[in-house]
Design brief:
The protein is of the alpha+beta class. It has helices spanning 8-19, 97-112, 147-160, 216-221, 249-283; strands spanning 36-39, 47-53, 56-68, 78-84, 124-126, 129-142, 164-165, 167-170, 179-182, 189-190, 199-206, 209-212, 225-230, 236-242.
Length: 284
């Protein structure tokens, strides 16, 4: 998603590096770039994070609101997503390009935040009332590529530090109707367990190979991408095809195995970054 289109010679250079397993930045096809995580950049939010991945910069802010329980998921809280891919972040987002990508990312995030991945029962208050987490994702810059993975990591980081106010329930639901009030103590709150939150790995097809963590130049040379979500146990939570081009069924097993192979290392790296940033917050 670079600002300027690559020349034919530049494309050949990128494609040749991928074929030789020596990419332009000296990475192998399955190598991830270093990234940095900042926790709590939005003081007015219940949880927030900012993630930098080369030239890709993503901000996530989460606000907790009281809402009605989803009838299809009784006894659970809800998580809603709003993703903004503005044209100021990348020329590729102009016209409907940003809207289409935002819709794809929102769908991916909804699948990540299922009851199997998050303890959404912690967000239930009483009867048909629960906390709704409104997750706002703002793409500040996308010059580094690999936006979907960056957003997924930033959302996990923000959820890990989200503090939902504790409530006190009154009444018994029979002779006295249930009611509740917020506990006026900032040290009493509910939090979510993100240990089961899947790791997202996007593989971009370039020539006959797939690369992990594609740069913006590599994305220009790609002929399609496969987004794979891997659980903490190494199982495939889900996978979907994005972008142009087709993925032959004979390639699917190799793509999933490649995603599994790097998901554990990526999960560990993100957890270390979250822990390091959390320690910094605690000492501020």
């Amino acid at each position: 998603m670079a600002a300027a289109a690559l020349s034919n010679n530049e494309r050949l250079f990128v494609q040749g590096g991928v074929a030789a397993n020596m990419r332009a930045d000296a990475r192998a096809r399955s190598d991830y770039r270093a990234f940095a995580v900042e926790l709590g950049p939005v003081s007015s939010a219940n949880g927030s994070s900012r993630l930098h991945l080369d030239g890709t910069d993503v901000l996530v802010a989460i606000k907790a609101e009281i809402a009605q329980v989803d009838p299809a998921l009784p006894g659970l809280g809800r998580v809603n997503f709003s993703v903004e891919c503005s044209s100021s972040a990348s020329p590729a987002f102009e016209r409907r390009g940003g809207d289409q990508l935002a819709a794809e990312i929102s769908q991916t995030l909804r699948r990540l935040c299922s009851p199997r991945s998050l303890n959404l029962e912690k967000l239930h208050i009483v009867e048909q009332t629960a906390w709704l987490l409104a997750v706002d994702v703002l793409v500040l810059e996308c010059a580094g590529g690999n936006l979907i993975d960056a957003i997924a990591m930033a959302v996990k980081a923000a959820l890990s530090v989200t503090r939902v106010p504790e409530v006190e329930i009154t009444g018994n639901g029979e002779t006295i109707p249930f009611d509740f009030e917020l506990v006026d103590d900032p040290h009493k709150f509910r939090s979510l367990d993100v240990t089961r939150f899947p790791t997202v790995v996007t593989l971009t097809r370039i020539g006959r190979h797939h690369v992990i963590d594609a740069s913006a130049d590599e994305e220009q040379c790609g002929t399609g991408r496969t987004v794979v979500a891997v659980t903490e146990k190494g199982d495939i939570a889900f996978a979907h095809k994005g972008g142009a081009g087709a993925l032959h069924v004979s390639e699917l097993a190799d793509v999933l195995q490649q995603a599994r192979g790097c998901a554990g290392e990526l999960r560990a790296a993100l957890d270390r970054a979250i822990e390091a940033s959390s320690s910094g917050m605690a000492t501020d």
